[in-house]
Write a structure and sequence with these properties.
The structure is a single chain. The strands form five sheets. This protein has a five-stranded antiparallel sheet with strand order 8-7-6-9-10. The protein is elongated and about 90 Å long. About 20% of the residues lie in helices and about 30% in strands. Strand 7 and strand 8 form a beta hairpin. By secondary structure, the chain is an alpha+beta fold.
Length: about 375
């Protein structure tokens, strides 16, 4: 006679919960990215601690086996065990998220939004935007769902980025694994070969090519960093799939973000062509207008206030608009100020101001060095509304 035995831990006979895998088999799935021996308490108490399961065994029809309760298996018992197992797996998922450990799972399938990945008794989700950029870059002629179909049955290393048991949302990211591995080697000022992955109204997302020949990280080129010219639509300058060069200008390691620039690979064209924009045979010094007299050169909006505030700074004795010109292109309608790299002549430094197409050159007479002028200008801009 065959009966069902509810097995937990009994005197002289035990079936450790570790023997059951994610699919109920006797082959447990242990994350290959973590060495269990390094975290014995963690794995014993969190990941490998499984609820007792109902196991169907054969026993003789003779005397009752000591320590084993003979009972008929029931749907209620099965549901209870299944729920206990799922609760334990949700707890494990939350532990992975909090610890940042890498999980190696099997890709079970895909849908229109991403990959379905097995996590013990649970099924998690990897949105397509969270896949490694190399998966699409190495086969640009294929759409993402064709690529996803080819990945079914293979394994993928991911991090848990959301484990919401109440709403049954288990979200993974392959990009987060790559970020933790490759971002420490990226620094501000680095220049990368890159490929344009997608374009939005506010900028372009581009994939960075690493020396191993793979695209591991993705960064944003904001629309303001595409060109020194005024850009209305990024698509007028670059297109999806273009191979470009970019410069790293900012790294936010807490938010896993890289900010890139195309235009900063070159100097501002205005600095290179200032003498062409502003004629060398401009007005003589006697014709130049200072900030306290009748200005023949009308200051750019807001510039007269800035010049007045500069005169309040220690070490600055004179501020004078010397000449102006007009660019052929519009870079920005906002007032922009910067200190020319030209060396001082007779204690005079050149400050450049630009708004729209109009450019004005301001001469500062000062005992300050270039760094001192930068600090003075920063203080002034903090005071000016």
């Amino acid at each position: 006679m065959v009966t069902a035995a509810v097995v937990g831990s009994v005197t002289g006979l035990s079936f450790p919960p570790q023997i059951f895998g994610s699919d109920g088999s006797s082959n447990p799935t242990i994350p290959t990215s973590i060495n269990p021996s390094l975290f014995p308490n963690f794995f014993r108490n969190s990941l490998l601690k499984r609820p007792s399961c109902a196991l169907r065994v054969s026993v003789s029809s003779g005397p009752k086996t000591e320590g084993v309760e003979q009972a008929q298996d029931s749907p209620a018992t099965t549901d209870t065990v299944r729920q206990a197992r799922r609760s334990a797996d949700w707890k494990a998922a939350r532990t992975y998220k909090e610890s940042g450990f890498i999980y190696d799972g099997r890709i079970e399938g895909f849908n229109g939004g991403g990959l379905l990945v097995r996590f013990y008794s649970l099924l998690g989700f990897v949105p397509y935007p969270h896949l490694s950029p190399s998966r699409a870059c190495k086969e640009p002629e294929k759409n993402i769902q064709v690529i996803a179909k080819s990945l079914v049955g293979s394994r993928i290393s991911v991090k848990v980025i959301q484990a919401d048991e109440e709403n049954r949302k288990l979200i993974f990211s392959e990009k987060e694994v790559l970020w933790s591995k490759f971002s420490p080697n990226v620094k501000v000022g680095d220049i990368f070969e890159a490929r344009v992955g997608s374009i939005e109204d506010y900028g372009a997302f581009v994939h960075l090519l690493f020396p191993d020949g793979y695209y591991h990280l993705t960064g944003l080129v904001h629309v303001s960093e595409v060109s020194w010219d005024l850009v209305q639509d990024v698509r007028d300058i670059i297109n999806v799939g273009d191979n470009i060069k970019v410069k790293v200008i900012q790294i936010d390691r807490e938010k896993s973000r890289v900010t890139l620039s195309i235009k900063q690979l070159e100097d501002d064209p205005l600095l290179e062509t200032l003498d062409k924009v502003i004629p060398q045979d401009g007005p003589s010094e006697s014709d130049n207008s200072g900030i306290s007299g009748n200005l023949k050169i009308e200051p750019l909006p807001g510039l007269d206030i800035i010049c007045g505030e500069l005169l309040q700074e220690d070490g600055i004795t004179d501020v004078r608009i010397s000449r102006q010109g007009f660019e052929r292109r519009v870079v920005s309608q906002d007032l922009q100020l910067w200190l020319s790299n030209a060396p001082a002549v007779n204690k005079q430094f050149t400050l450049l101001a630009r708004a729209g197409r109009q450019v004005q050159e301001i001469q500062l007479t000062t005992s300050l060095d270039q760094e001192g002028i930068k600090k003075a200008l920063q203080r002034v801009l903090e005071r000016v509304p």
